[in-house]
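Usage

Read records sequentially. Each one opens with the input sequence:
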Amino acid sequence: MGPFDRGLLVIYTFIVTVALVWAAAAVAGFIPSYRVWGGLNMVIGQPQAVIALLGLFILGGARLFWVGVRPRRRQAVVHEAALGQVRIALTAIQDLVEKVALAQNGVREAGARVYPGKEGIRIGIRVAVTPDINIPATAAMVQEQVKNRVLEVTGVTVQDVAITVKSISARKPRVE
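and closes with the structure output:
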């Protein structure tokens, strides 16, 4: 659940809680019935506002429902060994990929994403390179090195390696 969904959940829960407390107070007699009906008549007197609020409330509820029931992404690759399972976190493979990419000549920065595929894993790498290299040749070398190193270290088949060159920069990034 991301920050947007968490914020939506907080707002949604607050509104429902306030409405339920208000309804319980009205039923228990703490709020006079003429105030309850007066408030409802004031809201019902503006049907466009009621429809807009109900629409937003329904969309928010549908979004929260989807977040709760959607299938979760796999976070690890599982190998069955003789003595049990070996789980390799996708973030561990991601770190390995970044180190392999940065070891290549001409690659200044690298950021990787690892996704489960049908037959192994899929890797996306965003790199910043120096202007003095041949980008297609370097990209092909990075792809091959990443594929071989991931297979060698983890035993996981790499389905594909997609490389995106995000910048061509002659200077190294600053470390603060």
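Summary fields computed downstream for this record:
- The chain has a mean pLDDT of 84.
- The chain has five helices and five strands.
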